[in-house]
Amino acid sequence: MKTTIAALLLGVALPAQTVDFGKAYSFAERAPRTQTERAIDALLPSIVKIHGASGLQTISAFASGVLVTAQGHVLTIDQIMLQPGRTRVVLYDGSVHEAQLLPPDDRLGVRLLKIDPKLVTAELRPLWPAAPTPFRTGQFVVSLGNCFRLAEFSEKVSATFGVVVGRADTALRYRMTNVAYDGDVILTDACNNPGHQGGGLFALDGRWLGLNMKLLESKETNTMLSAAIPVADLLPYLDEQVHGKPRPSPVAKTEPAWFGVQLFEQAGRQSPPAYVERVVAGSPAATLGLRNDDLIVRFDEFSIRTCREYRDVLARFRPGQRIKVMWKRGTEVMNGEVDLVAEPRR
Amino acid sequence: MNGARAASAWLVVVTMLAAQDPIAAARADEAARVAVIARCSPAVCSVMAMDAPGGGSGVVIDPAGFVLTNYHVVGEPDKEHVLPSPPKPPDAELAAYRAEGARTDADVAAWTKAWQQRWREEHHPRGVRHYRNKKIGMPDGLLYEAVVLGIDPGSDLAVLRLLPKRPGQTWPSCELGDSDQLLVGETVFAMGNPFLLATDFTPTVTFGIVSGTHRYQEGQGQRVLVYPDCIQIDAPVNPGNSGGPLFNAAGEVVGINGRISIGDRGRVNVGVGFAIASNQIRNFLADLLAGRHTEHGTLDMSAWFMAAAKDENKRRGVYVQQLFRDSVASLAGIGLGDEITRFDGVEVRSANQLATLVGVLPAGAWVTVWHRPVAPEGGFGDERRVTVRLSALDTGSSMDGGGENARLASRAERRVATRAVTSRWRTDNEDAPAVAWSAVAPDGSTHRAVLAGQRLRVERGATVLVDLGDGTGFVVEGERVREPTADESERLRRERLCNPVLWPRATRQDRLRDALLVGGVHVHGAPAYRFALPGDGECEAWFFADGEPAGCTFRDPLRRAKVERHVRGEQVRFVVDGKLEPGWSGGPRTSGAVDEAWFRRQP
Question: What is the pTM of this model?
Answer without folding.
Answer: 0.82
